[in-house]
Task: structure prediction
Amino acid sequence: MDISGRVAIVTGASRGLGKAMAFALAEQGASVVVASRTEEPGGRLPGTIRETADQIVERGGKAIPIRADMAVAEDVDALIERTLSELGGIDIVIHNAAAVVMGRVVETPMRRWDLVWNVNMRATGALITGAYPSMKEHGAGSIVIVTQLAPSSAPGRGFNPVYRLAKNASAELVQIAAGEVKDENIAVNGLWPASPRDTIGGRTARGGGPRGLHASIFGDAVVELIGRSPSEATGQLLTDEEVLRQAGVTDLSKYEPTTENSEF
Result:
């Protein structure tokens, strides 16, 4: 797919990997819908959809912010409807937003089950089915779900089985949906960071300071993956480094973090 001139939705794009992907798509000429529930500053972590959209515009790109909580069905539906109404179609969907629950299954209240399932799984299905008619009409489309490829099943401290179950389900949905639309020039793939990436969320969780490669590696990987023909890349579950290696990129030194503050 030629990304230039396409309309892309990126969820969880107020910071982190979502913001990195929004930047990368905009740099390739896409009109990016920056979606997240963080509309105003003042939260636990910095970054808002408005800031991401403004930064894209400042760089010469095109972006609009749309507030959407992926745990709320009505918000997901409104995100699809507004994108179609304001930008005239949907060509690319990146579902990056996620909800994580910690602790054992037997100690996890059902409201937390609902949150994790709605964000990680239900929203995946809603975005795929919501964007499909426009992609079919345009004769092309690409959907990328940020989903774990082989989640650990070992119990222990920090183990989150409910999150693992939801991610396993979303990974299976990637392959099911890819099979259904493989003859309609629409690709559906899963992508996951090969190791921790340097984001503000990651730095906060790990006590500050650079952690892992720069998040732009994930943005570059998603651009490469979307640019491939569905005949050669659909129904796949890949890491960002695998995608870049397949494209001939073996030197990742340019992704070493260079600043004390994470851009993402």
